[in-house]
């Protein structure tokens, strides 16, 4: 489905702030995969998503989505097949427009366009989808999104990301800014939608427990590299403690390497 | 009466410009300073074509050239990543030369005696004051129907969203650079049309009459918002138009009773805008002042009760 082949990205090249944020990334995502991604702050997880979404062009390497080479596509071209949810609930929606207008904009990227952005059949479709959230939003379709709570906005954004049936759904700590209860709810909705539409998805999370419980495959990133990629039996056998000790071991190995570099 | 009718007519002709300002400043949420140039551009184009005997073509041409000016500003912003305000100023400044060139190097051009939109209608329907006002209202009314409908189409919705959350627009697979350019093109087309109408109404075009238009337009938008509140696009456009009429009426009466000389107009519009924009911050500092005073009073009261208590204690002793 998605292939990253030897992808590299260095920020602020040639300056004192030089940072190799993506270091020879090789990643093959199979159709129907639901991958959870973990790693410390600054590991390059968000940068990986930015590279896939086209926030910047990568320095080298290829990005293939469903047999199409999208390496040189601009961000809005890629958004045709990629839905993305950020941590900040404010980012994904237009606050001064109504729920139905927001949905219409996201929906019409693929749907046939009439003269008007919103028509009756669209509205009933949106109603139907919103009612599945069980948040009561289907009765507030003419409410401005800015008046909703963070959790509600994130739910609307989730719908906007998935309403056009993307080939890939990227979730970047999309529940981290919500209170625990709302976060749980949004996560449950996310799981439901992914299962319902058989979406291929990648989810960055800080919650290692959730990372091992959700999805079928887990990736760990550190310092711009993928240092662990497990699925199937290995993954279900893995405990949180093992994962953490693996992480600190990798870290130490790297520190040792660095020390060798400095002393030699 | 004549005064009122005259300002009604002017108000509705300038209302077309106020709508353009509403589109760029409110819907697209970008400060577009192209306006001063594109207003004169509309005047110049209309005057030249009217002088050569094509009054209706002249008005259509203003839409076209205004749209080009807006697109130029949009391209500077989106392709060359120049700051929106500077982009507008750059295009406005360039347009000064363009406008002079259009008028053949002259700084003003009279179309007196030529057929205009107004004289043509006057010949057919008669030209009393009421009819003239109707003629002036027609373009504004037409746009008041067309433009809100446009903003309900898919493209219109995308333009509105671009002003609200550009990132979300791109995430919905829409090229926000394109929607921004189209929005600015429409806004400046309106402004230029207004300039064209004014030049036909006043029977002359002057290269410098566009200066300060952006402030006058903004004043109209703000007057409208003060009266009708900030609401949806349709009401927003309508209230900007009404704001323009009210602005003209205020100006006409202020001039009439010699409140200020006619050259004070632009200063007055600037003051209106400053007052309107300072509203929230004045309100806030008033609120803070009240809190501070309350705190101070409270502190004083506590100090005096404390003093009284210690005295009581001494007396007890
Ligand atoms: N646009 C950018 N410009 C410069 N440095 C960046 C940029 N984006 C990310 N980085 C750097 O790349 C590294 C990886 O960041 P990021 O991918 O956001 O980490 P995380 O895994 O926490 O999401 C960090 O050191 C960050 O400072
Ligand atoms: Mg991150």
Short description:
The complex is a heterodimer of chains A (264) and B (317). By secondary structure, chain A is α/β, with parallel strands linked by helices. In chain A, 38% of the residues lie in helices and 23% in strands.
Word description of this protein:
Chain A is α/β, with parallel strands linked by helices and 264 residues long. Chain A is built from nine helices and ten strands. Chain A has helices spanning 45-53, 75-78, 99-107, 120-131, 150-162, 180-197, 208-213, 232-237, 240-263; strands spanning 2-11, 19-29, 34-39, 60-65, 68-69, 82-85, 168-172, 200-204, 217-222, 225-231. In chain A, the strands form two sheets. Chain A has a six-stranded mixed sheet with strand order 6-7-8-3-9-10, with helices on both faces. In chain A, β4 (60-65) and β5 form a beta hairpin. In chain A, α3 packs parallel to α5 (150-162) and α5 runs parallel beside α6. Chain A is globular, with a radius of gyration of 20 Å. The mean pLDDT of chain A is 90. Chain B has a two-stranded antiparallel sheet. Chain B has helices at residues 2-27, 35-51, 55-78, 84-102, 117-125, 129-150, 154-164, 166-171, 176-202, 213-228, 233-256, 265-316; strands spanning 108-110, 204-206. With 317 residues, chain B is mainly alpha-helical. Chain B is globular. Chain B folds into two domains: 2-259, ABC transporter involved in vitamin B12 uptake, BtuC (Orthogonal Bundle); 267-317. Classes of the chains: A alpha/beta (264), B mainly alpha (317). The A-B interface holds A 74-77, 79-80, 83-84, 91-97, 101-102, 104-106, 108-109, 113, 115-118, 160-161, 164 and B 152-154, 156-158, 160-161, 164-165, 167-176. The structure holds adenosine-5'-diphosphate (ADP) and magnesium ion. Adenosine-5'-diphosphate binds next to β2 and α1 of chain A.
């Amino acid at each position: 489905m998605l292939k990253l082949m030897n992808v590299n990205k260095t920020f602020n090249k040639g300056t004192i702030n030089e940072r190799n944020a993506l270091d020879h990334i090789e990643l093959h995502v199979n159709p129907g995969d639901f991958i959870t991604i973990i790693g410390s702050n600054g590991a390059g997880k968000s940068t990986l998503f930015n590279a896939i979404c086209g926030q910047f062009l990568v320095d080298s390497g290829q990005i293939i989505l469903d047999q199409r080479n999208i390496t040189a596509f601009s961000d809005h071209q890629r958004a045709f097949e990629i839905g993305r949810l950020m941590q900040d609930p404010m980012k994904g929606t237009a606050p001064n427009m109504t729920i139905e207008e927001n949905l219409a904009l996201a929906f019409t990227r693929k749907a046939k366009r009439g003269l008007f952005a919103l028509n009756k059949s669209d509205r009933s479709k949106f109603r139907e989808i919103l009612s599945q959230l069980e948040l009561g939003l289907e009765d507030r379709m003419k409410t401005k999104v800015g008046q909703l709570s963070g959790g509600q906005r994130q739910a609307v954004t989730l719908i906007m990301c998935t309403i056009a049936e993307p080939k890939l759904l990227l979730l970047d700590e999309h529940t981290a800014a919500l209170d625990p209860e709302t976060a749980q709810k949004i996560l449950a909705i996310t799981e439901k939608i992914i299962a319902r539409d058989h979406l291929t998805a990648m989810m960055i999370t800080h919650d290692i427990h959730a990372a091992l419980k959700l999805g079928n495959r887990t990736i760990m990133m550190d310092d711009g590299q993928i240092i662990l990629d497990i699925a199937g039996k290995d993954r279900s056998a893995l405990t949180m403690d093992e994962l953490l000790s693996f992480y600190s071991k990798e870290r130490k190995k790297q520190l040792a390497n660095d020390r060798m570099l400095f002393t030699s | 009466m004549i005064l009122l009718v005259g300002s009604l007519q002017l108000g509705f002709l300038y209302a077309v410009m106020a709508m353009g300002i509403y589109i760029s400043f409110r819907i697209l949420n970008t400060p577009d300073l192209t306006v001063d140039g594109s207003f004169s551009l509309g005047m110049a184009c209309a005057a030249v074509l009217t002088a050569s005997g094509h009054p209706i073509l002249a008005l259509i041409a203003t839409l076209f050239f205004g749209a080009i000016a807006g697109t130029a500003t949009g391209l500077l912003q989106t392709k060359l990543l120049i700051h929106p305000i500077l982009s507008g100023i750059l295009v406005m400044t360039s347009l000064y030369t363009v406008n002079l060139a259009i008028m053949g190097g002259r700084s003003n051009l009279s179309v007196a005696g030529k057929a205009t939109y107004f004289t043509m209608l006057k010949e057919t329907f008669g030209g009393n004051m009421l009819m003239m006002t109707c003629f002036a209202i027609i373009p504004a009314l037409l746009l008041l129907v067309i433009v809100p409908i446009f903003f309900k189409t898919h493209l219109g919705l995308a333009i509105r969203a671009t002003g609200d959350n550009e990132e979300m627009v791109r995430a919905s697979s829409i090229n926000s650079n394109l929607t921004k350019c189209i929005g600015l093109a429409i806004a400046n087309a309106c402004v230029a049309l207004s300039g064209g109408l004014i030049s036909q109404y006043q029977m002359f075009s002057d290269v410098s009459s566009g200066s300060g238009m952006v402030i006058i337009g903004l004043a109209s938008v703000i007057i409208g918002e003060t009266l009708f509140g900030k609401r949806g696009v349709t009401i927003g456009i309508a209230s900007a138009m009404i704001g323009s009429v009210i602005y003209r009426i205020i100006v006409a009466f202020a001039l009439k009773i010699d409140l200020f000389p006619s050259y004070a107009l632009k200063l007055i519009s600037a003051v209106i805008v400053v007052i309107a924009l300072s509203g929230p911050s004045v309100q806030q500092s008033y609120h803070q002042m009240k809190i501070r005073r309350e705190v101070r009073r409270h502190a004083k009261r506590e100090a005096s009760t404390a003093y009284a208590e210690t005295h009581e204690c001494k007396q007890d002793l």
